[in-house]
Amino acid sequence: MGTADQVSDALLDYYQLGIDSMLIRGFDPLNDAVEYGRELLPLTRGRRSA
User: Fold this and answer.
1) What confidence tens digit (pLDDT) does each residue in 24-39 have?
2) Among 13, 16, 14, 39, which residue's Cα sits nearest to residue 26?
3) Residue 43 pLDDT greater than 80, yes or no
4) Three-state DSSP class for 3?
5) Residue 38 DSSP label
6) Residue 40: CB partners within 8 Å, gap ≥ 6?
7) Which one of 12, 26, 42, 44 is most buried, counting C-beta atoms within 10 A?
8) Angle CA 44–36–23, to nearest 5
């Protein structure tokens, strides 16, 4: 749990260790999936490319 920035940082830490598949889940699967798609995934992809 955390802000999108905090979660993105954590995901990228794992990615840098060689992990390329992750299961992320929350308490409200549909709304969480929408939020991940709108906020978390684009943020993380942008940081990974930088």
Assistant:
1) 888 899 999 999 999 9
2) 39
3) yes
4) coil
5) I
6) 4, 7, 8, 11, 24
7) 44
8) 85
